[in-house]
Design brief:
- The chain has 308 residues and is mainly alpha-helical.
- The protein has one domain.
- It is 58% helix and 0% strand.
- Helix 1 packs across helix 2, helix 1 runs antiparallel to helix 3 and helix 5 packs antiparallel against helix 6.
- The longest helix has 43 residues.
């Protein structure tokens, strides 16, 4: 049963990865080939998931739905039953603001949220291409991976769903932890790219460095969005919105700490750092720098891979 939940979460990740790719589609043949391959992968995954869902998830959901409907006889169920809605547990505050993809290259807080491609004025041909792109995005976006977190709290409260809910909670907690670690690591790498750019000369080298920075910013945003999705799933599974561990991740939280004394501007040392670096706040200045160094050492293998 754990394998079934992991399969569903992996498929959910693939779906949102494809949405992000469609959002940033540059129209090149190489990108087109990559998108087609990912679409095919998602299609195969969905076919396998339907079998898995029918075997491990659907029987539990059906039992819960029948009992809920019988218990609510004479009472009206939510209009979206059996699906989960944000209104069941209050509004979510961690939705990233929609960002322009042409943001300044030094802004490492940019979010590459999986939002539909923006509609802009253009020629008739370009307009048709953009419309087709948006329609392709919508087609993927409506796909529903029917994990436990997709269902109403009325369904999830049923005893038949207890094991599935606990399993997805464990998987989503791991996903959130990994995504937050990825966000930190990519922020550090983005900083290194910006630092390296100061040492390049010539238009070609400068353009190449800027593209490298922009690509890394997109990766930062995707990691942050993965954390947000995991958090929303955890809330659907029963976690409190104000949970102390899995907090709201706003766009303004996705920032780098001041890594070196030389880099800090006047007043930086007195600013409250983003909560994603909170582990360093209780330490003295010297110990904090040493801890930051330790973090860099832990991330070194991945960091070197990204730099290359």
């Amino acid at each position: 049963m754990l394998g079934a939940v992991e399969e569903g979460v992996a498929l959910d990740n693939l779906k949102f990865s494809l949405l992000a790719d469609l959002t940033s589609d540059d129209g090149s043949e190489a990108t087109k080939t990559q998108l087609e391959a990912k679409r095919a992968q998602l299609k195969l995954g969905l076919e396998a998931w339907r079998v898995t869902h029918a075997q491990f998830v659907a029987p539990m959901v059906d039992e819960a739905m029948v009992d809920v409907q019988m218990a609510c006889h004479g009472w009206s169920l939510p209009i979206n039953f059996p699906w989960f809605s944000d209104g069941e547990r209050g509004c979510h505050e961690d939705e990233a603001e929609e960002e322009d993809e042409d943001s300044e290259e030094d802004d490492t807080s940019v979010s590459q949220a999986t939002v539909a491609p923006k509609k802009r004025k253009a020629t008739a041909m370009a307009g048709r291409a953009r419309q087709a792109k948006a329609e392709g995005w919508d087609k993927i976006n409506v796909i529903n991976i029917e994990l436990p977190s997709a269902y109403s709290s009325l369904v999830l409260a049923h005893p038949s769903m207890r094991v599935l809910v606990d399993l997805e909670r464990q998987v989503r907690q791991g996903q959130a932890n990994d995504a937050l670690a990825d966000t930190r690591t990519h922020l550090i790498t983005a900083f290194s790219f910006r630092y390296q750019r100061h040492n390049v000369s010539g238009q070609i080298q400068n353009t190449r460095a800027m593209r490298k920075i922009q690509r890394k910013q997109q990766v930062v945003g995707r990691a942050a969005d993965t954390y947000r999705r995991a958090r929303r799933a955890l809330i659907a599974l029963g976690m409190q919105v104000d949970d102390a561990c899995y907090r709201v991740l706003k766009t303004t939280d996705v920032i780098l700490f001041a890594m070196y004394t030389e880099e800090e501007q006047l007043g930086d040392s007195r600013k409250t750092p983003s909560w994603i670096w909170e582990d360093f706040t209780f330490m003295g200045r010297y110990r904090r720098v040493r801890s930051r160094t330790s973090w860099l050492m832990v991330s070194e293998q991945r960091f070197q891979k990204d730099v290359r």
